[in-house]
Design brief:
By secondary structure, this protein is an alpha/beta fold. The protein has 2 domains: 25 residues, no CATH class; 310 residues, 3-Layer(aba) Sandwich (Rossmann fold), CATH 3.40.50. The chain is 55% helix and 8% strand. The chain is globular. The N terminus is likely disordered.
Length: 349
Amino acid sequence: MTLSWLNRVKLASRILIKGTDPSKRDPQLINIPPITSEEVAEANAFFPRGKFFIYGHARSGTTLLTRLVRLHPEVHCNYQAHFFTRLPLLQALVIDPDVRTWLVRRSNRWNHGRDLSPVVLRATADFIMERDARQVNKRIVGDKSPNSLLNGRAVILLHNIYPDAHLIFIVRDGRDAVVSHRFQQFIDVTQHLTKTDWRIRQEYIANSEPFLKGERSLFTEKGIYQAAEGWVKNVTETDQMGRQLFTRCYLSLRYEDMVKDPQNEIKRIWEFIGADISDPALDGIIAAEMQQNPDADWQHEKASEIVAPLQKGKQGSWRTMFTSRDREVFKQIAGEMLIKWGYEVGLDW
């Protein structure tokens, strides 16, 4: 699809009015044409390894899932390329107007009369992933990138470039996920904290007991609403678009089921992405990895004053940490979603 004269006029008008090209601020504003089946076949001829992607809300177990999945002798998975899940997206490589002009220019016979953007993006991501997989001699390769920021849009962007990939979506009880994410904010992303957030953080460090007993909220009034809404939006949109676009190449699982029965859940995933699960030694490898918790070790080293009072990875920690107000807000916004995913049977919690 070429940039028509009218589109160029509209783009120039937006720049004159707003001062900058909006596509440079938000790459989502550029619609990249989906890759064709012929282009997929060509890409696979050059980059033949099977591809999978792990999505999930922040603090939903994506890292643990990645550590377990990559234990298989045929499977490699690395962390957070954010090809399709966080700005700047992979497609930022092709949004510059001059680059797009070259990609669609009629005299550029290499493009076969079609926008080369999806081919460029596919080849870039394929090379990045397969380069790593080749070094460790693995024939299946994936990327783990939480999609909390773009939700269902991240699924669409992925499908436009990787319609032949496998998508794995992990869900965790939203109440535990937002509590864990709140502590991650206090430890890892303090640059995004407001003055009120900083005050709560300092008061927690000074005396954690009221927070751990649900007498004081870890969240601001606005924060608990946004946390609940964000979890519902992520789970709803990702699952809906995953089922719709990837059909049989989409798999969802619950974090709690993976922790309870890691052998069966991980072998189910391995089989889903095409790995051989016949080796009986795989069970022992998974069990050994479950005894490790490098994330907890790192957080304790970085901010022991925050994590020391916590039981890392404990399921149901929200039950003691949520205030009555936190419960009511989360029940109002996410109650039905918690029932749908089997975390509650009603709204009397």
